[in-house]
Amino acid sequence: MKKLVFVRHGESLWNKENKFTGWTDIDLTPRGIEQARAAGKLLKENGIVFDKAFSSFLVRATNTLDLILSELKQKEIPISYAWRLNERHYGALQGLDKTDTLEKYGEEKFKQWRRSFDVPPPELSMDDPRFSGNDPKYKDVPKEELPKTEALKDVIARVQPYWEKEIKPELQKNRTILISAHGNTLRAMKMILDHMTPEQVLELNIPYAVPFVYEFDDNMNVTKSYMLGDEEEIKKATQEIADQGKKKSS
Predict the structure, then answer these.
(1) Which residue of 142, 149, 231, 235 could cross-link 120, Cys pair, CB 3.0 to 4.6 Å?
(2) What is the residue extent of each domain of the chain?
(3) CA distances from 217 to 108, 120, 161 (A)
(4) Which residues participate in catalysis according to the annotation?
(5) Parallel, antiparallel, or unpaired for β 79-81 and 176-181?
(6) Does domain 2-242 correspond to CATH entry 3.40.1130.10?
(7) For residue 84, how far is the Cα from the chain centroid?
């Protein structure tokens, strides 16, 4: 059977602090670690055995993957790491408090930057210390390919070819694949797999460490898709993501 499971990383330190994270390499909170372990236990309870895994370059995703595979006792499987699976780049917003940004720029501009399909936040300059071209981790990536800001449209543009060239061929070998990534890269994946419109994907929220499962036929058509876990808990976790950045109560 061709099966794909993707999981957003557990809560990170900057998720907890309500900051725009993007490509900033921020690790998991203790809660995020437990969320990742719980995802691994859930996958184990469902008897899912993986043949290969993919992750972004960012530590919150790589550590989530490591914790899941530890729970599954499947750490020996091959893993591919790809910058194309990194979170959406939030440009000059990276490191800023979401609620403070909302109050400073207003709800319309904030929503446009955070949730529009094709309007990116203000970009970083290449000499900004936050620019990924200054990070040795990306030394093998041409600087002109590294984003200085992104809208969701740009994330889809980099995820789609990686899906076609790297992930899809593995599934076509009747393998079971695990992806550990981020809210926006996984929104991009769902837009590709579920043939969602830009309007539909803007309303989509990906909760922390909830496994999304896709099954495919021999023609790579989705035959079944579902989330693992308690339905009410998933609803609460999804609402938590939707509520991020709301104005502080006075």
Answers:
(1) 149
(2) 2-242
(3) 43, 36, 21
(4) 9, 87
(5) unpaired
(6) no
(7) 11
